[in-house]
Structure formats: C-alpha cells, structure tokens
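Summary for the steering committee. The consortium agreed at its last meeting that each partner would contribute one worked example illustrating the joint modelling workflow. Our contribution is presented below. We chose a case with several input lines so that the handling of multiple components could be demonstrated. No manual editing was applied between input and output; the record is shown as generated.
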Amino acid sequence: MLSNDAERIRTIYGIDWTAVDARTRGLAAAAELMSPDVKARISPEVGDRVLDGIGDFATFVEGLEEDFSEFRYDVEAAEETAPGEVVLTGVIHARGRHSRMPLSAPFSHSWSFVDGRAVRVQASLNRQPGFSASRPV
Amino acid sequence: MDALFEFYDPEVEWDMSHSYVPDMGVFHGHDGVRAFFREWRAFFAEYYAEPEQFVGVDDSVVVRVRQGGRGRSSTVGVEMPAYWQVYRLRDGRALRVEIYRDETEALEAVGLRDGPSHQVARRDHRRDTR
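What follows is the complete predicted structure of the assembly.
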C-alpha cells in the first residue's frame, strides 16, 4: 500500500497542463504538495536546468502550452523506494501545437519529501533510450 | 538542406494525407516542401529523424522513420510514433513522398499486398542508429 505522500503526488499527474482549468487545479494541488523552495529537475536531457521553487514550476507548466496543445504525464507505476522517497514512472502523452502530431516519451520522476512536503523532484532518462541515444540534426 | 533538395525533383509532391495528420494534405514543389519543413521544425529546439528500415520495390523505396526532439519553449524531449515514408523515384530523384502511419498501408502502396511479412530487399538499420 502506498503512503500518503505517494497518493498525494498522483493529484498532479494525469492533468492536461495545456488546459487552463486543469492547469489551475494542478497548480493549486502542486502548491499543497511542494515546498515553496522545491528543486525540480524535470528535463534531464538539457543538462543542468533546475526549476527553483514553486514559481519556476508554474512557469514551466504554463510554458508547455507554447509547444503543445495537449500535455499529460500519465503514471503507470508508483513505488515508495524508502521513507519519503517515491518514484513514479509512466509516459508523457502530448500533441504538437502546430504540427498536431501525437508525441510521447517515457518518464521517471523521483520525489523526495521532508515533513510532508516535496523538496526535490529528479527526472531520469533511464526509460528513454530512443531519445537519449539519438543525435540532434 | 541543399543536398536534400537536390534529391527532390523540382515538381516533388509531399503527401501527408495518410499520415497522423491527414488534413495537412499535399505540399507541392521545392517551395511547398520547404514551407512544410519550416512549420514542422518550428516546434523543435533540437530535432532528429532516423531511418530504421528500407524496403526497395522497383522505383519506390519504403523507409521506416522515427523522429523526435526537444520542444523549443518547454525543453521537454518527445518522440513521434514510428511512421513510413514511400519515395517514388524518377531518374534518381524523389518525385513524390508519401507519409503513412500504417506499415501495411505503406507496403500495399508499393504493391506488397501481403504487408509486413513480405521479404524483399529489406535492410534493417535500427542497429546502426543506437
């Protein structure tokens, strides 16, 4: 059985972050879930970019709308790897805003909690071999 | 990009009507295809397109392709589902390029009625791209 932390994390997944109403609800849930100074590294393929605080996280999800007309992190598995440590894996389902192409990518997000608030979110590329092995052209 | 357009006949047609976005229709000539490429690439800060498999039949070649990249604003890495390009060649240049979301439909378009199980001139490049 998953802990309360793991169950609370799920409230900000499965949301279409490009839809205004859903994003508003998602950001409200994120504010409840995350520490104000949370550090989130959610795009590891671009190196050292770290979202610093809940404000940066909000900027990130609001920016998704520029690239995508749909964007969801859909969870396939959640595991509590240690007390206060939860790993979620799944698939990003998205659609390009201009091309309208269906797009996807696997994700793995590792969450760290202190006193019931998320203080760190770390993404890894280990479920993304196709992308990480490919060369940009 | 210039080398690519040397391969495309000046009257090339780029047909998206069997793709994941069929209402994009058909793009005509170098100018039309360039405009399509510009629009297509606008999303990506980084972009890749990798051929994974080639099937040659007479003057046509079917290519299985994967492509993806990073969103320009979001920096999120994403990939499209695999798709198939059918090149119709004349005098060594591409006269027509048709994009298919379905392998069977792509193979049928070049006369391979039994679809993916057909064994002709197939070269698998997937190993080379990893």
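Helices of chain A lie at 4-9, 20-33, 54-67, 129-132. Confidence is low (pLDDT under 50) at residues 127-137 of chain A.
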